[in-house]
Automatic annotation (TrEMBL):
Domain of life: Eukaryota
Name the UniProt record assigns to this protein: Triacylglycerol lipase
Annotated signal peptide: none
Cited Gene3D superfamilies: alpha/beta hydrolase
PANTHER family, A to Z: ALPHA/BETA-HYDROLASES SUPERFAMILY PROTEIN, FUNGAL LIPASE-LIKE DOMAIN-CONTAINING PROTEIN
GO biological process: lipid metabolic process
Domain Fungal lipase-type: 98-220
Length: 246
């Protein structure tokens, strides 16, 4: 049986320095830990309840200490192929994080949507999108946005930035979510709060027209709210999220 550790975590000076710099050199590493947790191999609610134990050596989340300051706000399962995700808040940094799962190897249905690559017109009429990804996104759109809006209300004034992340197929679904938020700011009234997209090993989501639309929306947000109001990190290589010291 797992129990919550009551002892306060003590960080070394090196660890304190690393985490204080996470928005620069370690940002992708931090995001990757949340992206992997979204796979729900360990039910996400159970994982968050037992994080102090699960990050210890020899246990499933060994070394994932970036998760420790976080608390789970909301978890959801999409209506299409049961795709899971969650919304969490990092108390120490003020980061609101949305993580969407990639393809579960045990889900034949998710795999089918993953390879269902017919081109489907995007509602903006600015390009076409991967039809399987679009169906999966529509399945999580409502609960995901509802969870985000609830978090903005609960944490009013305490959010430093919003991070949307996912691995593989989860990266593709995350991009569609970001595209929606950029296109219609009323969906998620962020104001000047920075919005970051961090995708790991994500496949192509749409055609060149959709890419151009994305670029235009990013430019529009940065013009209205400042250059730091949006950033994207498309991580392709296996170790691209790791910090390497000389």
């Amino acid at each position: 049986m797992l129990t919550s550790a009551k002892d306060k975590l003590i960080l070394t000076e090196e660890q304190k320095l690393m985490y204080s710099n996470e928005k620069v050199t370690n940002f992708r590493l931090i995001s990757r830990q949340f992206a992997e947790l979204a796979y729900n191999v360990i039910p996400v609610a159970t994982a968050f309840q037992n994080l102090p134990v699960l990050v210890e050596p020899g246990l499933p989340l060994e070394g994932y200490r970036a998760l420790l300051p976080a608390r789970l706000l909301n978890s959801f399962v999409g209506t299409t192929a049961h795709l899971p995700g969650f919304v969490a808040y990092r108390e120490d940094t003020g980061q609101l994080i949305v993580a969407i799962s990639g393809t579960n190897v045990d889900s034949a249905l998710q795999a089918l949507y993953n390879i269902h690559a017919l081109r489907h017109p995007h509602p903006s009429k600015r390009g076409k999108i991967h039809s399987g990804f679009w169906k999966l996104y529509k399945g999580i759109r409502t609960p995901c946005l509802a969870g985000l809006r609830d978090a903005l209300t609960e944490l009013n004034g305490r959010i430093s930035e919003v991070v949307i992340t996912g691995h593989s197929m989860g990266s593709a679904i995350s991009q569609l979510l970001v595209l929606d938020i950029l296109h219609d700011e009323s969906l998620l009234p962020l104001g000047n709060a920075p919005l970051h997209f961090v995708g790991f090993g994500g496949p192509r989501v749409g055609t060149e027209g959709l890419v151009n639309f994305w670029s235009e929306l990013v430019g529009k947000r940065q013009k209205q709210h400042g250059n730091k109001s949006f950033a994207e990190f498309a991580v392709k290589m296996h170790n691209d999220g790791q910090t390497i010291y000389d």
